[in-house]
Amino acid sequence: MDYNQSLRATEDEQMLLNIVRLRYRDRMYFLEADTVTTQFSYSASIQPGINWIPGLGSNESLNNRLAIEERPTVTYRPLRGKDFVERILTPVNAETLILLSNSGWPISRILRTCLERINNLENNYQTDQQDFTVDTKSHQTFIDVVYALRELELANLVAGAKDPVSKQIVLQFKKKAHKHPAFMRLAKILSFDPSLTVLPLVNAIETENKDVLTIQARSFDSIMFFLSQSVEVPDSDLQERRVPLRNDEQGTVFDEARVTKDLFRIHSSIEKPDKANVAVFYRNNWFYIDDSDSASKSTFSLLTQIFALQSGSVQQAAPILTIPLGN
Question: Which of 45, 66, 174, 303 has a CA 20 to 30 Å removed from the CA of 285?
Fold first, then answer.
């Protein structure tokens, strides 16, 4: 259990550290536990003794000592090379989105994390390149779409699947969904036929067919970059402009954490936090996920699964734990 907890904790800390690095535009770096070995040593001794107490006589004793020492060694290897880089730069495919959805992850969390765009709706706050001002309208409509899908999911009126004929990944709606307010909102926002029961997911920039959802999926690298906007940057680092700054429509500094509101949040503190689910020390500050923040903990767990799915095929071997028990 100690090995299990320690390896999980170090993997979580590494993931969080890389997210914080990206907020500062520092580069990511991953290590993976390759092997775990341990050695045990045993020693035993017996020592007789006689204690003399004046007036009471002697008191004989026999002291024994048993010591067991464990010396674990963990070998890490860097994740690098062409194969690994290509995997984390490859966009998440539609089949992976449906796999995650059918395994129990809320569709709203999956789409907010993994998609850059649905049709012409951006899952990020766009910036006018001329005056570096943030536009928030498109993003809010994207949020409305994913939570309408979540309403239908909770009502068991929509599910993802692969069409047996076309082999396309689709969203299937039950007939009862047509009367649901969330479905009506979807049809209006996305301008598709409100009588349809199947909506294909097409990974494309645009299409002439209105009765499909065109999506632009993120790679694991871009997912990390997106979630890095949630980092609460200390005031001193903001003042020294150690992170990129943008302005909102009113011309004031834009709070980048609004991008991941109710999805993911990383706090910062000078002192080590008492109630952190995972925490790392970086640039003279502590960065952490609050243990009471269920939404952020869930998104973080989803992120680790996406990482395993996107980079898993390049792993050469799982860590091996060898514990010699002796005679």
Answer: 303
Distances (CA, A) of 32 to 29, 61, 208: 10, 52, 45
Q: For residue 298, what pLDDT is reported?
A: 97
Q: Enter the tokens of residue 75.
A: 């070998």
H-helix or E-strand spanning residue 297: helix 294-311
Residue the block writes with tokens 């302005």: 247
Please state, in angstroms and rounded to a whole number, the distance separating the CA atoms of residues 291 and 59.
56
Q: How many CB atoms lie within 10 A of CB 322?
A: 10
CA 18 to chain centre: 11
Burial of 53 (0-12, 13-18, 19+ CB in 10 A): exposed
Task: Give the three-state DSSP class for 117.
Answer: strand
Number of H helices and E strands in the chain, helices first, is: 9, 14
Please state whether beta strands 169-173 and 31-53 pair in parallel, antiparallel, or not at all (unpaired).
unpaired
Locus of tokens 């767990």: 301
Q: How far apart are CA 148 and CA 151, in angstroms?
A: 5
pTM value? 0.84
Q: How confident is the model at residue 327 (pLDDT cuts 50, 70, 90)?
A: very low
